[in-house]
Amino acid sequence: MNVLSLLGRNLTQGPYTEPFPFGPAPTAKRFRGRVTFDAATCEGCKICERVCPAGAIRFSKAKDGLAFAVWHNSCVFCGNCEFHCPTGSVHQTTDWHLAHEQARKYAMVEFGLIPNQTCSECGATALATAPSLRGIAPPLSAEEAVTLKSLCPKCRARFLKARRAKP
Ligand code: SF4
Ligand code: SF4
C-alpha cells in the first residue's frame, strides 16, 4: 500500500492506534498480563517456580505457612507457570497496567500464603495445601474432599488407602 492510499484509508477509517491514555484501550482476550495466585486451590508442588525462566516466582517458608510471590518486574509474561500448573492456581490475567514508579515496586508483586493447619486426625502441623485429586476413583464426595483437605500428608495417604480398600 503506498503512502497516499494509507493516508486516504486513515482519513476515512481512522488510525489503528488506540487513544490511550485519553481513551479506552481494548485488550486481546488471550493477552498475557499480570499473574495471579489462588492459595486455596494450590497443591504446593512448586512446579510453577521450577518452570519460570525468569526466576520471578518464589516460594519461601513463613512463620504461618508457605509464602508465594510473583515479581512482576522480573516476569517476562511467557505463560509457562499457568501452562504447567496442574490446578490452575497461577493464572495470567489480561491486566497490563504494570508501569510503575520505582518507589511502588513492591506493589507490583502478587503475594499469597498457603497457611499452616493442624491435622484433624493426628494433630500434626502441616500446610493446608489443596490435596491432589487426580487419579482418585471413584471421585471424592464433597464431604470426603473437605476431610481430605483437613489432613496432613501422612493422614491423607492413610485416608486414601483405607478408601481404596473398601469393597
Ligand atoms: S500454583 Fe500450581 S504449579 Fe504452583 S505450586 Fe501451586 S499447584 Fe503447583
Ligand atoms: S509468566 Fe513466565 S516469567 Fe512470568 S511468572 Fe509465569 S513462568 Fe515466570
Automatic annotation (TrEMBL):
Q: Organism's domain of life?
A: Bacteria
* Keyword field: 4Fe-4S, Iron, Iron-sulfur, Metal-binding, Repeat, Ubiquinone
One family from Pfam that matches here is Fer4_7
Q: Which PROSITE patterns match?
A: 4FE4S_FER_1, 4FE4S_FER_2
Residues covered by the 4Fe-4S ferredoxin-type domain: 33-62, 66-95
Q: What is this protein called?
A: 4Fe-4S binding protein
